[in-house]
Amino acid sequence: MRGPQRFPDAFRAHRCLFVNVPGCESEAVYTALFGANSPGPVPLRWYEERFAPEFATSFKFAFVRDPLERAYVAWARWREARLFQAAESSASLDEEEDFDAFVEGLAPPDLQDRLDFRPQTDFLEDSQGRVRLDFIGHYESLMRDFQSMADFLCLPAVLPWSAPAYERTPRSSRYAVGPLARKRLRQLYQRDYEVLGYA
Fold first, then answer.
1. Is 2 within the bounds of a domain?
2. DSSP string for residues in 83-117
């Protein structure tokens, strides 16, 4: 993954560093806090290796999400895009596999090839493999955690959607995912589960 060639002005102005983790509403958080020109999903180590002085003095933060929920939502978006493409081209699409079958076919190299499925800790680890952040917010408490960051940075920021949209966690996916797929996801995202506080 590539990142910005210069330390983002918004980060420099607020002496902070926001790590954008795909699938965790990171783009919405960035836009609400800093406006346009998001550097996108760039790993923490990219900043550490290229902007060492800024890295050392910046308040580092990110938002994360339950690995099962994140994978399920990424799969649903991927499947929806495939169905849309097939409809646009008037092509027929074979019966798609369900989420459980999709998960059973996943291997670690597949996660690296698909940004939305890449483990969250891949974005959050420094060059020594440590998660060195000053604050980790959670999607499941996004409104509260976002407000904490906005207050800390002294920014009069609000997220563009209403609180109920964020506080609602799509727990229905838990019931749609079979035990073998849940076990496989725990294996694939073992470090995320261990480090990010998801039981």
1. no
2. HHHHHHTT---PPPP-HHHHHHT--HHHHHH-GGG
